[in-house]
Design brief:
361 residues; globular; 14 helices; single chain; 6-stranded mixed beta sheet; 11 strands; 14% strand
Length: 361
């Protein structure tokens, strides 16, 4: 139950608060950290996850542990946060691990995999299905401690200048889509581009790209894609439950007092819950506004979905054959994904389908 998950998160925060009572904090050192975000300040919900963490850590430590948040590009470019944390340029970052699949495709499991876990299933796999331990093997290679720090929920399928009537319309199409999702689109004939959030609109405006995906209605509206590309597709099958991650330099983590480590964990858990709830609140309102702007909301054609799922399976098999850590994580992730899908199809799936087709009057 979601209530149980919420109470668990709240319990963590409560335990942390009691563990770092005022007398204990008074004896702890003053610490200042810098947090590099991958996101611009204008995207207040996804960028705001880092501010939720920083504010809560200051509160729990009576202001003695201060984390200052910097937007993408202020210290390092948005797609270089992992490197900045790994080499100690900053102590902590807030980013999506799939930005770094060029280093190892296994990073994709920490964010989202095509036709994979939704946001709740991702949390379950991470906390109880062994995901955290498996991903720690990868993060350890980069001297990083990782904490879940938000989720957007299933994303939208992107903005296109021209309608996608079938698989053939993807051939040669230049689309901003990073990570394994980009590789998947390449298998379907598109030409993927990796761009940070702040660079997408200019590229779309100049015609450097023909299409783009980002997150969902609320953020997409802020970035103004609808002014150029009116065709809005769903679902974002490459990102069914993308997790945003706090990456912490392992040496700096080890130097923290235990009370500060507890505060950081509790604050990350709060940010993880808060971001998803905020997107769930804002997205339907934003979609309504977009439709009033003449946006054409459309589902991907079935041949695109079928071909994409087949391409994803091929990609996973190819990578497993040459990447031992990817294979190890995939061996845990795949049966977990299938079990979760079967379970969600029973109670929640049935209830959702009914209420969606038969709203209350």
């Amino acid at each position: 139950m979601e209530r149980r998950a919420f109470l668990k998160q709240a319990g963590v925060a409560g335990l942390a608060a009691s563990a770092i009572a005022a007398p204990a904090i008074a004896a702890e050192p003053q610490i200042r950290w810098r947090l590099a975000s991958s996101f611009p300040k204008s995207l207040d919900t996804i960028y705001g996850g880092a501010e939720v963490l920083a504010d809560r850590v200051r509160e729990l430590t009576d202001g003695k542990f201060d984390i200052r948040v910097f937007a993408g590009g202020e210290i390092v470019p948005g797609l270089q946060v992992l490197d900045a944390v790994s080499n100690g340029t900053v102590e902590i970052g807030h980013t999506c691990s799939y930005y770094y699949v060029g280093k190892n495709k296994a990073f994709g499991f920490d964010t989202s995999m095509p036709f994979g876990l939704n946001s709740r299933q991702q949390n379950a796999w991470m906390q109880f299905g062994g995901g955290d331990k498996l991903m720690a093997e990868l993060f350890d290679q980069y001297k990083v401690i990782a904490l879940a720090g938000g989720n957007t929920g299933t994303q939208m399928g992107g903005w296109f200048r021209n309608p996608i009537k079938g698989l053939a319309d993807l051939k040669g199409l230049k689309m901003r889509i990073p990570g394994i999702g980009g590789e998947l689109m390449a298998k379907l004939g598109a030409v993927p581009q990796t761009l940070a959030g702040g660079d997408i609109y200019p590229a779309l405006e100049k015609g450097t790209i023909d299409a783009t995906e980002w997150v969902g209605p609320y953020d997409d509206e802020k970035l103004g894609f609808f002014k150029i590309a009116k065709n809005y597709y769903y679902p974002g099958f490459w990102e069914p439950g993308p997790q945003i991650t706090f990456m912490i330099n392992k040496e700096h983590w080890a130097k923290l007092p235990k009370a500060y480590q507890a505060a950081l964990k509790a604050a990350a858990a709060e940010a993880n819950v808060t971001m998803q709830a905020e997107y769930d609140h804002k997205n339907p309102l934003a979609l309504g506004r977009l439709l009033k702007q003449g946006v054409k909301l459309q589902a991907y054609p079935k041949d695109v979905m079928v071909a994409a799922q087949k391409a994803a399976e091929e990609l996973y098999a190819e990578e497993s054959a040459k990447n031992p850590l990817f294979k190890k994580i995939y061996a845990s992730w795949l049966p977990y994904r299938n079990t979760q899908s079967r379970w969600f199809s029973v109670a929640e799936g049935t209830m959702d389908r009914f209420t969606q087709s038969t709203p209350l009057k």
